[in-house]
Amino acid sequence: MDMRRIVALLLALIVAAAGAVFALAWIAAASILRPTRHAITRSPSDFGLAFEQVAFTSPDGTELRGWWVPAERPRAAVIPLHGFGSDRTELLDHAPYLHEAGFDLLLFDLRACGESGGELSTLGWLEQADLRAAVDLVVSRTDGRPIFAMGHSLGSATAILEGATDPRLQAFVLEAPFTSIDDITDRSFPHFSHPSLPSFPFAPVAVLIAEARVGRDSGTIRPIDAIGRLAPRPLLIVTGTGDEVVPPPDAQRLYAAAGVGAEWWLIQGAGHSGSVDEPFVVAPDEYRLRVLRLFEGALAVSAD
Predict the structure, then answer these.
(1) Which of the listed residues 217, 218, 291, 292 has the most CB atoms within 10 Å of its CB?
(2) H helices within the chain, ranges in order?
(3) How far apart are CA 268 and CA 240, in angstroms?
(4) How do strand 147-152 and strand 76-81 relate by DSSP bridges?
(5) 103-108 and 63-69 as β-strands: parallel, antiparallel, unpaired?
(6) Residues of the chain above pLDDT 70, percent
(7) List of residues 6+ apart from 137 with CB closer than 8 A
(8) Backbone angles phi and psi of 140, in degrees to 5
């Protein structure tokens, strides 16, 4: 075979490989932007809690759906925020002890999840606005009582990003928040992409595709740059030693950037939010105690 044919064959192989990478990255980006929705099969009534179905609108017109769970003698409100590809039921197990402690609850589905509208998950960008709309709804129902956020993974990152500019959120429980989109895609891309693909060479291409479809530079979605603006409001960062999606070093970086008012709790043997060994499953009693202690402290501050 002469040199020209060898070069032509190599070029054809390179083009074919690049095309395959782009095609698989396109599929992976689509799976991230459009997470699979699951039927809502649980509700607060499973715990004997009365609730109301609610619908409200994000600033861009996306309809969001959820549950309003009023406390009998409310002292404050908590907005639980689920993780990527999940829905409002992800934090439902926290409802009984929060309700008993006197907290109204607004559990809702972020855009493109559960029963809420929206075609694309934007990994924290437009989800900030979803949380802002949720806070507006809580304010309209609580007559000025304090409002706290409690998130898992993407929900935690969303709480950080919105809380940095919204002082109405007065305390935060942040389980497995990621530092930035770039960090989590570089390291944890196989956990989110379908099919599961290695970060290299697929993640950078999938991110570029996602950025083009969403119209946002992923480099601007950086909770680690925003978390310091939550201070001095109380916040608790919760991480499991077995979390491979958002590992402890990321939580430590966030804790270092958070400043005054921050706590970090590292749970031995716990995995990522929503897994069978998530932190609340591994250490339920201490989890309740730490959450309630943080919120009670925030109530004491707001009463001063």
Answers:
(1) 291
(2) 3-33, 95-100, 127-142, 154-163, 181-192, 199-214, 223-226, 248-258, 279-282, 284-303
(3) 6
(4) parallel
(5) antiparallel
(6) 99
(7) 54, 56, 68, 106
(8) -70, -15
Express each pLDDT in 172-186 by its tens digit: 999 999 999 989 888
Q: How far is residue 155's CA from residue 172's CA, in Å, rounded to a whole number?
A: 11
Q: Which letter, b or e, does each residue of 4-41 get, where b requires 16 or more Cβ atoms within 10 Å of its Cβ?
A: eeeeeeeeeeeeeeeeebbebbbbbbbbbbebeeeeee
> How many Å apart are CA 45 and CA 29, to the nearest integer?
36
User: What's the mean per-residue pLDDT of the chain?
Assistant: 93
- Are 123 and 111 in contact, with CB atoms under 8 Å apart? no
- Higher pLDDT, residue 247 or 20: 247
* Three-state secondary structure call for residue 174: strand
Predicted confidence band at 1 (pLDDT cuts at 50, 70, 90)?
Answer: low
Over residues 113-136, the mean pLDDT reads 96
Chain centroid, CA 252 distance in Å = 18
The domain defined by 41-180+221-303 folds into: Rossmann fold (3.40.50)
The first and second tokens of residue 173, run together, are: 């429980």
Q: Where along the chain do its domains lie?
A: 1-33+182-218, 41-180+221-303
pLDDT tens figures, 50-76: 999 999 999 999 999 999 999 999 999
Q: What sign for the dihedral angle of Cα 242, 244, 249, 254? A: negative
The span from the first CA to the last CA of the chain, in angstroms, equals: 85
Question: Residues 81, 158: contact at Cβ < 8 Å?
Answer: yes
* Residue pointed to by tokens 């591994």: 282
pLDDT in the model for residue 189: 84
Dihedral sign from CA coordinates of 129, 172, 179, 259:
positive
The residues pairing with 77 across neighbouring beta strands, listed in sequence order, are: 104, 147
Eight-class DSSP state of 233: S
